[in-house]
Amino acid sequence: MAMYRYYAIIEKEKLDSSGCYIISFPDLENVFSDAETMQDAVQNAHDVLGSMLSVMEEDGDEIPPPSPADKLKEKVSEGGSLVLVEVETDQYNQEAVS
Known about the structure:
- It contains 3 helices and 4 strands; from the N terminus they run βββααβα.
- The chain has 98 residues and is of the alpha+beta class.
- It has a 4-stranded antiparallel β-sheet.
- The longest helix is centred in the middle third of the chain and has 22 residues, at 38-59.
- The chain is globular.
- The chain starts with a strand and ends with a helix.
- The mean pLDDT is 90.
């Protein structure tokens, strides 16, 4: 188990009036979340990243290397944020056992 650092893109939903935040990880397929506030979005980004990487490790899936921020900035729409998320999967494995 290891420490990982991936960038999340956090953007405010524009298609409806809820104003929720959408979280995605451009380097990882099918790793998404959402939240009502930016603070919750950052926390949810940590949780979903840690959980998904932990499962990928357990399943023996290949974990792609993270892209540098300068390559991801073009994927962030106006008003969105590029947020570095650090997780240690040992923590998520221990929480799942408890």
